[in-house]
Amino acid sequence: MVLESEKLSKEWSTSLKKALYLAITSGIFAWSPLFAKNAPASPKSGFILIGNGAEPKGLDSALINDVPASHIVDNLGEGLTTRDPITLQPRPGVAESWTLSADQKTYTFVLRKSARWSDGTALTAEDFRWSWIRALSHQLASPYAYQLYAIKNAEGFNTQKIKAEAQVGIKVLDSHTLQVELERPTAYFLYLTSFHTLYPTPRHVIEKYPDQEWTRAEHMVSNGAFKLEEWKLNQHIKIIANDKYWDYDRVKIEGAYFYPIENADTEARNFESGALHMTETVPSMKIPMHKKEIAKSPTAYHSFKITPYLGTYFYRLNTKKPPLNDIRVRRALSLTIDRKLIVEHITKGGQLPSRSFTPPNTAGYTYPPTLPESVTEVEINEARTLLAQAGFPNGKGFPKLDLLYNNGEDHKKICVAIQQMWKKNLGIDVGLLNQEWKVFLNSVHTGDYAISRAGWIGDYPDPNTFLDLWMQNGGNNETFWSNPEYDRLIDLAAATVDTPARYAHFQKAEEILLQETPILPIYTYTKVSMISPKLKMLDHAGKQIEWTSNITQQIFLSYYMLTK
Amino acid sequence: MLLYICKRILGMIPVLWVIVTLTFFLIRLAPGGPFDQEKHIPPEILENLEAKYHMNEPLYMQYVHYLGMLARGDLGPSFRYENRTVNEIIFETFPVSAQVGGLGLLYALVIGVCAGLFAASRPNTFRDYIPMFFSLIGTCLPSFVIGPLLMLLFAVKLQWVSVSGWEKPTDVILPAITLGTMYAAYFARLTRGGILDLIRQDFIRTAHAKGVRGWVIMLRHTLKGGLLPSVSFLGPAAAAMLTGSLVVETIFNIPGLGRFFVQSALNRDYTLVMGCVLFVAVLIVLMNLLVDIAYALLDPRVSYE
Q1: Taking CB atoms and an 8 Å limit, are A211 and B166 in contact across chains?
Q2: Do B40 and A475 touch (CB under 8 A)?
Q3: Model confidence, pTM
Q4: All domains of chain A, ordered by start, with CATH?
Q5: Closest-CA residue in chain B for A445?
Q6: Range from A252-256, A509-513, B259-263 carrying the lowest mean pLDDT
Q7: Which domains does chain B have, with CATH numbers?
């Protein structure tokens, strides 16, 4: 990998002719006063080199739902609001201000006049209306369309129960005022407006280059801090600072390269050799070594970073399958998982043993620690009693169930550990069943499993994203568990405006969830990254601070800078 | 000869048709589809997605539709890489794999044939044992061991080349060596074996009796025939190397075709799987044809007239 991307040597792989052509044309560009760029208002230095795990599926903000793509798209586009890079608090984005009606159901956004697409076209309220309708349209068939369901009639329009787009609660009051009517008060709506599905997409380009043709580097136009410069399949994606961005002066880097490195060891070696500034792929085998180094000299700068992540690793139980239909059996299984052992000896990346399902301090919501951290005599005795009551004293007569998991990461090691824990503590045997990813998904979606590995990463920082999963009609429930009182509480919380009262409903709901335990929470995820000491961040005042992450996968490169 | 080539090319069509048909139905038999993902997709959206890719039609219709596209040389859009067609993906990534594979093949042939010749010149002496010992090691060491070792030495320690990626001309060196080493070892063994078989033949003995010098016999008489086993192996080897290796391309993060072979199957990217399989099938059939032509040139006993 080279740092100076402009070097012609990079073009060698195409053909000599092309290289020659480039040499001539780039010479012209460099010398012709016509193309000479005005001196930028603020100096920008260097390109940030990012290990991005895999090739993104696409770069259409309304369509993508994979992490590698969101790393890039979050920097190309900008919604009505944006997020603080660290606390994630909503901040003005394309909208410079907004008001909320007294019934908390209508937002009126005032867009800034200086907002432009990267080709210079003005960005207006109509762009947002058109983009959101496009994201909801059945022709686009976006798997993330549900992110817009908070808007009135959006779900109906998306599922084609409502045909007229005028009925969707999006209204353009004038060229720079957008009114959004919600289905019901939604406390986290301003988070949603900063999510990529709700970014504007350029109608004037999409209509010229339909399908996904418009996301090619030669056509793509975006409205965020960066624009797409180059996209070489499985090689790299290059983005550069967008000089039409309304807050261009704040951006301190020239751009970034995203490398789709799939092999964790290759990524680690690239980082070691200085060919990457940041990566979120760290082989778990190498973690103890990094930790040892930190212990040796705690004050020195260390590239190895562990930061909290808004997600829970858990097991699903198929509550239709006996004996898992018995609450006592499910509770016994949950009580005898030594969660501390798993995070300390297997995952090793500073993960927190799950004491509840919602990660602690999700937008200020913490469920009191309920699940045991480690397994002691107390838990074992309680679990054995429960199992005996269910008709399996000392695990006798317990049918052989399979623990289903997919390839990758530490899934297998965790399964083996839990298999042992249940054998030792309860005297029951579970089998291990490994399936390739798509086969695994098929088994889980069709309910063809007994116990399966799962993970949930919050869509937005609010307990609702974790708790509405387990409603009866929740598409991601897949445990066949339901409880009318639980559903009532989640609906009640959704209709409640006052945060403490809303959280109180969530607390009651989570109590039911953990009591009846259709799932076995195991640990709260963390993000393990390698960060070059050259990489710094800026706060809102433009002051240089040390690198910090947030609890989502989002990387806000407009707040990043490179030092020597 | 020309007639023979035409016949062979026509013979390709039924072979490829069988391959296309088998792949088409086998990949659809695998559980899970291109749109399966961890998060639930509302059934209405799934229907729309399926309609977009003609997957709501009966299977035989999809098959007819695919064959129709194929007849026009269109391999269809990729299911996973939303703004790329399969034709483009192959067109963009095959040259990269072919560069690595071509260089690897050249390296394998030069090293392999030389080592084989050297070993065969004095069979069962140290001049034979030493290259054959190394060829045994080369055959045994898998590329996921050789690759990282080369990377550690030349990229991390000596810093002569980049660790991985496809940005500089020198990026081709380590992957080509990694890919070529195993083949070099094969070629060495095949060349040695082929030559040793010939040495015992009457016409070599005659040449010796006539007083022709050893190295002249080696180069003029034995090498040509001794290369035949290597030439047969060259067909499939060249096809495999030119279309890229998943392991080598993943380790060195090279944007070649090899990575798409396995990835496309894992993603159930139906059109891309079909495209990759078909492309490789065509290449293998063509390479075998070239091998057969080379045989006619090298071996006076073979003729296609």
Answers
A1: no
A2: yes
A3: 0.86
A4: 14-258 (3.90.76.10), 310-527 (3.10.105.10)
A5: B40
A6: B259-263
A7: 86-279 (1.10.3720.10)
